[in-house]
Amino acid sequence: xxxxxxxxxxxxxxxxxxxxxxxxxxxxxxxxxxxxxxxxxxxxxxxxxxxxxxxxxxxxxxxxxxxxxxxxxxxxxxxxxxxxxxxxxxxxxxxxxxxxxxxxxxxxxxxxxxxxxxxxxxxxxxxxxxxxxxxxxxxxxxxxxxxxxxxxxxxxxxxxxxxxxxxxxxxxxxxxx
Length: 177
Hints:
Radius of gyration: 16 Å
Number of helices: 6
Distance between the termini: 37 Å
Shape: globular
């Protein structure tokens, strides 16, 4: 689950507009979009498949839906976040399946109603966030609290007190104080 939730974070941060590290952020477009999506999906994996321009555009829409979940959780609107996740689960037709690949043992995947790259990843990200929201870990989803930054994160710290998307934002806030 942690891998697909991490992908959800990378997709939101790469593909949604807003502010990052104190500056306006515009997601990549045109020829820069497919490599950005490929990088978000690939982090930590050896998969060599490149995302097509059409798939990259679809991932942009998915990232917007995922951002709405993080924003709702950060604002304390858990019912809204759950509704967003339920809508994404229904849209993708997410279904659990035990899978084994890359010499790994059997593990749980969530596939979509079709085997397209976008639907499969969307279903997995939605299911991963559903597991987080449906547990006492929902407070671990966050939006950076640094001024002029709205990038999202998952707090994996031991004490669960993370407030920033990165060390850079944390340092900016400390320096300003």
